[in-house]
Design a protein that fits this description.
heterodimer; A: 342 residues; alpha/beta; Rossmann fold; 2 domains; B: alpha/beta; 5 strands; 40% helix
Chain lengths: 342, 273
């Protein structure tokens, strides 16, 4: 084959950018009827980097599985493939941040929280450096068992001073959190929804925009207040739609910023006499639920309080829809739990 | 400074360090005595740094990864003019910025917080990568201990530095053969270190880390190999310059009593003649 023929064949095999391979895992968790956007993080970061030369990307051999490959293909000079080495991933990001860059470092949430903690804490957080840690497979978003299920990442990171923590719900959250994270002058940990990510929030609230540090009412309701983050806001909204048919009015307060928690909004909504349910894709230990509970107790606001979340256990492996039913995260399970508490 | 001037400076830094540790009642004097000749060569011959403009974007970056020898760094920074010399007497005191491990947000001239071992080199990889990305000419230098090379993070950094062809990065390993509780050889004997670094694609030199001429030669621009990070194995003695501390593991974190202080100071003063 001639070089020209090889080149033509290569061109013919190239996939258009909008159809580049991504994981379909998250879309498989969405209810039917939601549109999905491919790799919202990768595209948002790539777009931001077009206008902000300080943006650099690093990954520990997981660029494709964190959607960072979209950025890497557009900005190869500003992409660092660190190999399977999470300690130098975080530390080198710190070194780049020292010198004026805004690094986005990606891996899986289990590896960042369990394996690289000391390096995030000492090299990044103590110096308040603007490193953005974006991690796939938060909570129960893989069926591959405890080695890949970051069911306790929020509990681990909440104790780290200076670190802002974000748990986005959908493609809009993921895309819009990127510039807000970059604009924040300090470290941020974000739980990433990767691949084809459903667009949920604007279906329920057309003018929704992600705002770092803010909880927002997505839906009003007089009987129950669900305070939720991450994909559990999608579950709460779907459950609320179903429960409304039975005459149960469920309000949903989406709180994608886990730290600092939007204390004022949560306290204002919690004081209205409704059953308060927190819902999170995380163990019930040390995540959104306990953060909300502590906020309420400290302020002397004491509604009836219930938690939806994963058990304090290493979870089973298997198919995600089955696991979400088993551990109480599916829409069906959320509905049953709320009905049981009323 | 001539090599003779540098030797005199190193002796002065040793004496001030000894006094500071004695007065504070704590410190890591053994590792300080082993690294001071290297620090002196860096700050008074090699590094392009300006105490009047400690954050000059074009300055060379220096990371003391063996952060427990902070007192030696503070005394060196004071001699160079980054902090007042009289401030050394506040070392480890409440509200002093001269803590047991260096903090960049407190002390001008400190480039990164260190203390947990195995942190300095990985951060320096990011700094050196940033210089390459910015087409900047400044260099990044790191000093680690030898026991510290047991930390896996250092080897992650060593691999990354070669992968990114960071020939603007220099690692000096203070190879004093003793770690906090015992000899390296009795703990986890990673010696010989040079062939390991070479196997990872670094340009490696071995020197006597107390011989000023050898230190200066090893750090000269002529020893840089394009495309390769530079590694210098500096063979040193823990407690160097003080007879009863030299090569004695007990002096990792021990503080001299009045009699020992007097003898140590007398030995250093005699060496200064």
């Amino acid at each position: 084959m001639t070089a020209a023929a090889r080149a033509r064949r290569y061109e013919a095999r190239k996939v258009p950018e909008t159809r580049q391979a991504t994981s379909a895992m998250i879309a498989s968790l969405a209810a039917e009827g939601y549109d999905a956007a491919p790799a919202p993080f990768g595209h948002a970061l790539s777009d931001l980097a077009n206008t902000d030369e300080r943006i650099v990307g690093l990954s520990a051999d997981l660029s494709k599985y964190t959607d960072l490959h979209i950025f890497a293909q557009k900005h190869p000079d500003r992409f660092y493939q660190m190999g399977m080495a999470e300690q130098v991933l975080m530390s080198a990001a710190a070194g780049l941040a020292h010198e004026g860059f805004i690094p986005f470092a990606t891996t899986y949430a289990v590896f960042a929280s369990r394996r690289a903690y000391d390096f995030i804490c000492m090299a990044i957080a103590e110096e308040n450096l603007p490193v953005k840690i974006v991690c796939a497979l938060p909570g129960l978003t893989t069926g591959y068992g405890p080695s890949h299920q970051a069911t306790e990442d929020l509990a681990i990171f909440r104790g780290m001073p200076n670190l802002v923590i974000v748990d986005p719900c959908d493609a809009v959250d993921v895309a819009q959190m990127v510039p807000e994270m970059a604009a924040h002058d300090g470290p941020v940990y974000a739980r990433l929804l990767r691949g084809n990510v459903p667009s949920v929030l604007r279906r329920h609230k057309p003018d929704y925009r992600f705002r770092l540090g803010k909880a927002q009412m997505i839906r009003e309701g007089a009987d129950v207040l669900v305070v939720s983050s991450g994909l559990m806001t999608m579950r709460a909204l779907d459950a609320a739609t179903e429960l409304a048919r039975d005459g149960i009015e469920v309000a949903v307060l989406h709180s994608p910023t886990i730290k600092p928690l939007d204390r004022d909004t949560i306290l204002a909504e919690a004081g209205k006499g409704r059953l308060l349910v927190t819902a999170e894709n995380h163990t019930v230990i040390g995540g959104l639920g306990e953060a909300v509970a502590a906020t309420l107790l400290r302020a002397g606001v004491t509604p009836t309080f219930r938690q939806i979340g994963l058990p304090d256990a290493f979870l089973e492996a298997g198919a995600l829809p089955t696991l979400h039913d088993m551990y109480g995260l599916s829409t069906k399970a959320v509905i049953a739990q709320i009905k049981g508490w009323l | 400074m001539t090599p003779q001037d540098l030797r005199a400076m190193a002796n002065r830094i040793r004496r001030r360090d000894l006094q500071a540790v004695y007065e504070a009642g704590a410190g890591h004097i053994g590792g300080e005595m082993s690294v001071i000749d290297i620090l002196t060569a860096l700050y008074f011959d090699v590094l392009n740094v300006d105490p009047g403009n400690p954050l000059d974007p074009d300055r060379d970056r220096f990371v003391l990864s063996k952060g427990h020898t902070a007192c030696a760094l503070y005394v060196t920074l004071a001699e160079k003019g980054f902090i007042p010399k009289e401030e050394i007497s506040t070392f480890l005191k409440p509200h002093s910025r001269l803590n047991g491990h260096p903090n960049r947000t407190k002390v001008p001239g400190v480039e990164t917080n260190t203390g947990p071992l195995g942190h300095g080199l990985p951060v320096a990889v990011g700094m050196a990568a940033a210089a390459k990305l910015s087409n900047a000419a400044w260099q990044t230098y790191v000093v680690t201990g030898d026991g510290e090379m047991q930390e896996g993070s250092n080897w992650e950094a060593i691999m990354a530095a070669k992968q990114f062809k960071l020939d603007n990065l220099t690692l000096i390993i203070d190879h004093n053969r003793l770690q906090q509780g015992a000899k390296l050889a009795e703990t986890n004997d990673i010696a010989p270190i040079a062939p390991k670094l070479e196997a990872f694609g670094w340009a490696v030199q071995e020197i006597d880390g107390h011989d000023m001429d050898q230190i200066l030669k090893a750090l000269s621009p002529e020893t840089v190999v394009p495309g390769k990070p530079r590694g210098i194995i500096a063979h040193t003695h823990k407690g160097n310059g003080i007879s009863f501390m030299s090569d004695n593991v007990a002096w990792h974190h021990k503080v001299p009593n009045a009699e020992q202080y007097k003898q140590a100071m007398a030995e250093l003063e005699e060496a200064a003649q």
